[in-house]
Amino acid sequence: MEQDSLIKYSFTYAPGGIAFLSTEGYFIRVNPAFGRLLGYTEDELANRQEKQLTYPNDPDVREAASPLLEPGAAPGMPVVKRYLHKDGGTVRVKLDVILIRDQDGAHAGFCAYASEWPDAEEPKLPQAAELYEMASEHTRDVISYGIDGVLQFVSPASLKHQLGFEPEELIGKHASEFIHPDDLASLGEQTFRESDSFICRIRHKQGYYVWFEVSVKRVVDSEGAQLKEIYIGRDVTERERAQTALRHSEQNLAQSQRIARLGSFEWDALTGKMVWSDELCRILKTDLHPDVTCEELMTRIHPNDREAARQSMRDALAGREIQVECRIVLGDGTVKFIRIQSITTLTSKGRPSRINGTIQDITDQKLMLQMLEESVDRYTSLKKYNLDAIVSLNKSGIITSANPAAESITGYSALELIGMPFADLLAPEEEGTQTQLHNIMHEGALSGMEMKIVRKSGHLACLLATPAPIYVNRKQVGCYMIAKDITEQKRKDELLLKSEKLTIAGQLAAGVAHEIRNPLTALKGFVQLMGRSEHSYSHYLPIMKEELERIEVIISELLMLAKPQAIQMKIADLAVLVQEVVTLTGAQAVLLNIEIRFFPTGDPLPIRCDPNQIKQVFVNFLKNAFEAMPRGGTIDVSMEATEQGLALVRVADQGCGISQEQLRQIGEPFYSTKEAGTGLGLLVSHKIIEHHKGRIHIASEVGVGTTIQVTLPIHR
User: Fold this and answer.
1) Which of 167, 343, 360, 400 has the greatest number of C-beta atoms within 10 Å?
2) Which residue, among 507, 499, 692, 676, has the nearest Cα to 584 in the 3D structure?
């Protein structure tokens, strides 16, 4: 027989087990005898990790034979260990391990010669067996014993009652098969003493798990070798549930206290000692010892609050429930606001024995309340001492509050104003204002407005009102009306307007006189001619009528500017108004050698206005243009409708122009670029256009001229 065949034959039919293992601890190849020791075939063990079959807490071959890797070590060494047999039991094996090296002398693996190592002979314990049998019949605890975790006996009665198994269903199986995987993992990490206990979950026959407290006793022989393990298991499911519920309740309580910043304490009235919760310690940031007395804690109370706290303590000792707020000074000097509440438990003789209570950190609440009070004080001061009237209205337009300025302006007291519809204060002609109020309340359309009210005395007052919405929970519930009394200012504006009209009329007088003199001369000549002749001059009559009508138009325009008239808003064509102004000022322009070129738009430009005021504005602009052109020139007056729905009028002259620095001050009272000017003309013009919801823009360049643009909303 050849050498290779001989080696293969010897390996296959050797009576003892032979296994080759890699450096990583995997079976490379085993012979049939080795497989029979563990109950596996050769193919089942091939490429399987040896540690997986090693009994828990026993070393694998790599660990046990690691001394062979040290320099100068022997080529082999014996190892006694246990393997998990395929049928669920264990087998003790002696391994003679040899280190395998390759041609270069490097570590290439292990060769192990295995033989079954007999267990120590089990001592006969007849008394113990009798005790097992008696205990198994009279106790509810599950009593069992086994060797290396493999069960050999289980008390029948308690096993059936507690876990539903028959003894034969467990005997021969490893106890780890019935322990919950999570508990098995944690038990594997623990080191147990000769006599120890642990709590784990054991599987019931129906599949659910039962909590057991297991006591373990290891039985050893005279030489200290382990013979067996005795297990006594007691069902503690209800206890675990109660403890779990208690832990859960304590966690919930601690979490609730932390969320509410509410700590609890218990004060023994007999000893004076206190016990407090973790949250209370956190609130107080205390450096005091756990059994601090109430008197020691009292020293931390703020001096100004200490007497009130002592009185509360006396009330608690008298059996009364207390609730007190005070400040406490922490160890780092921080001051906190706390609320203390407690209830007292009395003895049968009516004496206080225990006081239970809570301490809540209300520092943030106090700060918020302080900020709120300050905010209310600021709001009250703003409202009370404001010179403008401030009234609040609900969604129905009813007045709900009024400040002293509102009382002064209206003549009504705050009590009279509260509950009064705001519309009752308005003058009868203020129909548009009531519509605006409705839009403010229901559509959120906010805009300043002028309005007239009737005072309690019956006199009218003119107000400039600004609305401000009131929102509660993101919903408008009303609005404030902030109103300024402009009655006196309106009176002064009217006087200023009348004065400006008279000034303009006086300045136009020379031109008007010249314009009237020409038709009067013609009329005078025709009259003299007709008086000296007996012939009929009927063909002269149309000319005379035309000249008279021209005089009438000029005089009417002049009177309209000079005569004080009430403001009457109506719809008028802006093109017609500007045309009339050009006609009126044309005579003065001729005298000054100035040509006015008018470029009207083809379509009408209807606006809502007071025609007299609009005419006054453009007369004022043309008059200023005349004064800026002492040597004559051309003035272009053009108009158009913009895409934004506005009527645009441009007045462009060829005058001396205005510098940018002067232009910034144009429109201020008593500022004028003319030596004898007052600056009131442009001021009045600005006010008139603003009142008509329009705008004025002036652009000018020195030596080139000035262009004034006026925009007014077109009435639709």
Assistant:
1) 360
2) 507
Q: Return the exposure string of 279-312: e unless at least 16 CB atoms fall within 10 Å of the residue's CB, then b.
A: bbeebbebebeeebebeebeebbeeebeeebeeb
Number of H helices, E strands in the chain: 21, 27
685-708 as b/e: b if 16+ CB within 10 A: bbbbbeebebebeeebeeeebbeb
Token pair belonging to 560? 């309209």
Residue-by-residue DSSP string for 552-585? HHHHHHHHHHHS------EEEEHHHHHHHHHHHH
Amino acid at the residue 660: Q
- Which residue is listed with tokens 């090693």? 54
Q: Which residues of the chain have pLDDT under 70?
A: 1-2, 119-139, 190-192, 221-227, 250, 260, 286-293, 432, 434, 442-447, 497-547, 549-567, 665-681
pLDDT, position 707: 92
In this structure, which amino acid lies at residue 393?
Answer: L
Q: What angle do CA 639, 641, 644 make, to 5 degrees?
A: 140
If residue 432 lies in a helix (H) or strand (E), which one and from where to where?
Answer: helix 431-443
Tell me what pLDDT residue 558 has. Answer: 55
Residues listed for the chain? 716
DSSP output for 116-166: E-PPPPPPP-HHHHHHHHHHHHH-SSEEEEEETTEEEEE-HHHHHHHH---
Q: How far apart are CA 110 and CA 64, in angstroms?
A: 11
Q: What is the SS3 string spanning 656-716?
A: CCCCHHHHCCCCCCCCCCCCCCCCHHHHHHHHHHHHCCCEEEEEEECCCEEEEEEEEECCC
What's at 244, amino acid-wise? T
The β-bridge relationship of strands 594-599 and 449-454 is unpaired
**Which pair of structure tokens corresponds to residue 121?**
């002979």
Whole-number Å distance between alpha carbons of 403 and 169 = 93
Of the CA atoms within 13 Å of residue 208, those in its CB half-sphere come to: 4
What residues contact 593, with CB distance under 8 A and at least 6 apart? 631, 632, 633
Nearest to 629 by CA among 603, 655, 650: 655
Contact criterion met (CB below 8 Å) for 488 and 603: no
The closest alpha carbon to 36, from 8, 12, 61, 58, belongs to 12
Looking at residue 578, its amino acid is V
Map tokens 């780890």 to a residue.
Answer: 176
CA distance linking residue 388 with residue 269, whole number of Å: 63
- Quick one: 502 exposed, middle or buried, by C-beta within 10 A (0-12, 13-18, 19+)? middle
pLDDT digits (tens, 9 = 90+) for 123-132: 444 455 555 5
pLDDT at 646: 92
| Distances from the Cα of 103 to the Cα of 70, 106, 483, angstroms | 19, 8, 108
SS3 string of 222-268? CCCCEEEEEEEEEECHHHHHHHHHHHHHHHHHHHHHHHHCEEEEEEE
Identify whether the C-beta of residue 108 lies closer than 8 Å to the C-beta of residue 23: yes
Question: What is the pLDDT, as a whole number, of residue 648?
Answer: 93
Q: Are strands 594-599 and 633-641 parallel, antiparallel or unpaired?
A: parallel
**Tens-digit pLDDT profile for residues 196-214:** 888 899 999 999 999 998 8
> For residue 81, which of 90, 72, 89 has the smallest C-alpha distance?
90
**pTM assigned to the model:** 0.37
Nearest CA among 535, 604, 534, 529 for reference residue 573: 604
Q: Residue 381: how many CB atoms within 10 A of its CB?
A: 10
Please name the helix (run of DSSP H) or strand (run of DSSP E) that holds residue 466, with its range, or none. strand 460-472
Angle, helices 487-532 vs 541-562, to 10°: value is 160
CA–CA gap between residue 716 and residue 714 (Å, rounded): 6
Task: Return the pLDDT at 258.
Answer: 72
